[in-house]
């Protein structure tokens, strides 16, 4: 995938159609003649190997969309012969970094259940950026692997073991709440997961110096969502192994934070459950009590994610988080509004949220800020309980879900909620069909700017 500054790396020149013409004007006659004879027009995704006169490859020309950096090289690892390559474009450092990340994502293959051929082409990185680029690529691959793994091999226990391994790798404290302790301390998590043969858990991790700013990450870990007694149709269950995508994102961001040394006291909280059906499954119209003491009327057992997150957000607030970021594959309403590639997010600090949105588009990892619209809160205020897990209207489902979560975040805490999809519906260069990491690079960049890294 990557190598570090080899002496004999083949140059790769990324060009759009307009840049190609000016580049040909400066090229040597032999190269220019080869380009003209090949008919290469720098169309997005096109590729031209230019010989070196000795029977080898002297240069690679690759076409792209104007302005594209992240995906400019993503298709190359699968197309180029084995060897070492280097980006020849004189782009600013952040743009070169994005192109290298795209190359790395283009090398990704999920091979747990099937032998697949992995690209043998390697991109040269310099010593200064190599660790950062590798970490960002490997964290995205980590998320993709978790989301792609079916529930038969990734239950609450296996998710906890994955988190335990990550904690051990970075010398972080680790704890799992389960059984009677979970039922007593985190009743909402217990009720949602009680029908499954594999017991629910709350996973907790802590890392960083004690007196650093307290940052909490919370991730929805519904390892499979049948819908419960409000059972989904068969087609609706096909992708529900990905309903733990929020937990994968929380762990993936934690991996970046710990690997690159963000100067925070990090806490990670993951409610890990399976939303299953049996004689003791929770029912529509049940009223359950949460860790906070809030009573929740269950309008639909298929709106379980916000219910389990309520207890995790309450614990994060109790333990002194100054900022909480949660990730959840929470609503279909978000997909209807913004599609698969543009996750909406919500935040109490409007100025910071808009800054994150702007940064995300610059980073080519887009996020879209949505409002916590207070007048809609009345839609989740039922007559006989404190709050409902579904709204009275079929509209603004992502907004009312966010307002539900907001209820369980302590006052004065800076909070952001990401309603992610965590999936690619079709194959594209660097983005194979299947599990996907969304917003990780943007949030890392924003957090790095907010806190800085350890000296």
UniProtKB/TrEMBL annotation:
Lineage: superkingdom: Bacteria
PROSITE patterns, per the entry: CYTOSOL_AP
GO molecular function terms listed in the Swiss-Prot or TrEMBL record: manganese ion binding; metalloaminopeptidase activity
Keyword Hydrolase: yes
Pfam families found in the cross-reference section: Peptidase_M17, Peptidase_M17_N_1
Gene3D superfamilies the UniProt entry points to: Leucine Aminopeptidase, subunit E, domain 1 (3.40.220.10), Zn peptidases (3.40.630.10)
InterPro entries given in the database record: Leucine_aapep/pepB (IPR011356), Macro_dom-like (IPR043472), Peptidase_M17_C (IPR000819), Peptidase_M17_N_1 (IPR048816)
Hydrolase in keyword set: yes
Cellular-component GO terms for this entry: cytoplasm
Ranges that cross the membrane: none
Alphabetized UniProt keyword annotations: Aminopeptidase, Hydrolase, Manganese, Protease
Coiled coil region boundaries: none
Domain Cytosol aminopeptidase: start-end pairs: 300-307
An individual GO BP term: proteolysis
Family statement: Belongs to the peptidase M17 family.
Listed name of the protein: Leucyl aminopeptidase family protein
């Amino acid at each position: 995938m990557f190598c570090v500054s080899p002496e004999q790396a083949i140059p790769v020149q990324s060009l759009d159609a307009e840049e190609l013409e000016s580049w040909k004007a400066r090229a040597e006659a032999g190269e220019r003649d080869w380009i003209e004879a090949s008919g290469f027009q720098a169309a997005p995704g096109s590729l031209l190997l230019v010989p070196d006169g000795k029977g080898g490859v002297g240069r690679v020309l690759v076409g792209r969309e104007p302005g594209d950096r992240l995906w400019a090289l993503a298709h190359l690892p699968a197309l180029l012969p084995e060897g070492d390559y280097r980006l020849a474009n004189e782009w600013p450092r952040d743009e070169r970094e994005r192109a290298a990340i795209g190359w790395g994502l283009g090398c990704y293959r999920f091979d747990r259940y099937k032998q697949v051929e992995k690209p043998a082409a390697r991109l040269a990185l310099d010593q200064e950026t190599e660790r950062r680029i590798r970490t960002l690529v490997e964290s995205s691959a980590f998320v993709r692997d978790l989301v792609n793994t079916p529930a038969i091999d990734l239950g609450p226990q296996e998710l906890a073991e994955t988190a335990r391994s990550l904690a051990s790798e970075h010398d972080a404290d680790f704890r799992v709440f389960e059984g009677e302790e979970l039922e007593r301390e985190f009743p909402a998590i217990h009720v949602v997961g009680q029908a499954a043969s594999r017991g629910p858990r709350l996973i907790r991790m802590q890392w960083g110096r004690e007196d650093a700013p307290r940052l909490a990450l919370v991730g929805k870990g519904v390892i499979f969502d049948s819908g419960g007694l409000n059972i989904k149709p068969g087609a609706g269950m096909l992708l529900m192994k990905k309903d733990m995508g929020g937990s994968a994102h929380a762990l993936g961001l934690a991996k970046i934070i710990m690997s690159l040394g963000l100067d925070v006291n990090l806490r990670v909280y993951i409610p890990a459950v399976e939303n299953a059906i049996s004689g003791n499954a929770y029912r529509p119209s049940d009223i359950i009590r949460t860790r906070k003491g809030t009573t929740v009327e269950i309008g639909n057992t298929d709106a379980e994610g916000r219910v389990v997150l309520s207890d995790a957000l309450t614990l994060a607030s109790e333990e002194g988080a100054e900022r909480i970021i949660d990730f959840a594959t929470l609503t279909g309403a978000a997909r209807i509004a913004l599609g698969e590639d543009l996750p909406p997010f919500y935040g109490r600090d409007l100025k910071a949220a808009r800054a994150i949105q702007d940064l995300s588009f610059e980073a080519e990892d887009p996020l879209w800020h949505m409002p916590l619209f207070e007048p809609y809160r009345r839609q989740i205020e039922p007559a006989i309980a404190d709050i409902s897990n579904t709204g009275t209207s079929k509209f603004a489902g992502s907004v009312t879900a966010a307002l539900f979560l907001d209820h369980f975040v302590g006052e004065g805490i800076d909070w952001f909620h990401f309603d992610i999809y965590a999936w690619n519906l079709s194959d594209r260069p660097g983005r194979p069909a299947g599990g996907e990491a969304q917003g990780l690079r943007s949030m890392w960049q924003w957090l790095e700017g907010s806190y800085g890294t350890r000296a």
